[in-house]
């Protein structure tokens, strides 16, 4: 779907980014911007900035940045047209009807048709459940203590024993074999056609907009597999969807419950725990964690209490930590799963267990302990060493010490002895091992990408904004110095653009000295042209400029970072004023150097030489 730049800009400008973001993130005003905890990565101190002046957001921790359109795209997993439509509706703007390309129209039509087929199939299965041929499915659900209201709420159904029952029904609706095969509901081959689901209780799988995108089926009897899911289709990717999320996303609870299967989710929702979700016949993935992070920062794992459930929890914990989600583990013993627990003990007892859920790290220590015979002195020592290694996964000293105290208390290990063991273990294994383990355990380095507020570059005052780089060897040193020179030129262009965006008054100071053509980095030249044009027209809009890069993720992120680079100080001090002047000179000199290499004749070269000489006496006054 294509919309003109004017339409996109109107929708963006009519939606205030502070209003939109504050609906998802708690923001506090600091100076001219608003700050909150980043919704895209884990952090303890707010580094997520929303600028009402620029109409942009940026996280100085993870580098996520953009305008109001991309915020919805990232947070809600919307496509660009979907995000634009939501914002247009919010602002009361009617989007113009647009022509799609032949390919885009074909894809959109295919998805729409597949959604229609899935909806018809879900209604068909639900209808069959209450018919005589669906009695086996209805009896199964009744024995699992599900009410008719719950069955209706989740749209549960039954696929008949006839192996082509649904196929014949949908063929009667006029759908071709080609499109039915794309739905994932049928096997169509030279040997014949049959339904993938038959003689099963059916669980429609819905996306967050309550559209049926796939199915799960539980076999009646002893058939295999016991549970069968739809294959991946144009609509359905099991690693990116969670069962029950369409209901759980509107829960009032601050945390989500993650369990293993459909029946656990349904039983918990029926008991009032409407914040329960489950992965769809696959191990918990990073995509699942990213999806959850949009709605919550806390989860309680309610996997089965058997060995398989413990292993599933151990796999999920580091993935959740990496996504910045706090995690606890529920103890359901002596029962196997949430459904069984609730049936025997009731909702109040289950809620009490939730309140008592185990800290995920302490749960990992509990599981680790099971592998050692603590009556054996050697194994006990090995256990303590393993605990010390595990504690090194915490990069923050204070957090690590808090866990050392907890482990010392719970495992009856003298605190000072444990602290010394952790220190000795760290010294023996070295920092590289600890960093590797932290990454494997899901503890991300809180430092983000180097920004314009980094450390020195080559000794210039401008270098106070950049990270110092070393050199290597003789040949390597030459190459390194060349790279440093190129990096320095690029950084100067980036920094100058950032200053011009931060303080448009600076355009008057560089008029006649710098033009967009002096920005030799291709991307920066494009941005500079837009920035200069915006200033000349009196309509400089960083968020509007960003619209032009939405289709290129790499460029988009770089431009967002460019517009939100953190400048340590304003240009009030003499040191900063001098740094600005040096940056302007460096950008202009680099431009002249490039021009000298491509000069067409002696006249051009002489002009370049005169311009270089003029730079030596150039003074830019900011007073």
Question: What is the arithmetic mean of pLDDT?
Answer: 84
Question: Percentage of helical residues?
Answer: 40-55%
CATH class category of the largest domain: Mainly Alpha
Structural class computed from helices and strand pairing: alpha+beta
Write a brief caption for the model.
The chain is α+β, with helices and mostly antiparallel strands and 623 residues long. Helix 20 (475-502) runs parallel beside helix 22 and helix 25 runs antiparallel to helix 26.
Structure write-up:
The protein is α+β, with helices and mostly antiparallel strands and 623 residues long. 51% of the residues lie in helices and 11% in strands. It has 26 helices and 17 strands. The strands form four sheets. It has a six-stranded mixed beta sheet, sandwiched between helices. Strands 1-2-3-4-5 form a five-stranded antiparallel beta sheet. Strands 6-9-10-11 form a four-stranded antiparallel beta sheet. It is globular. The model is unreliable at 444-478 and 566-570 (pLDDT under 50).
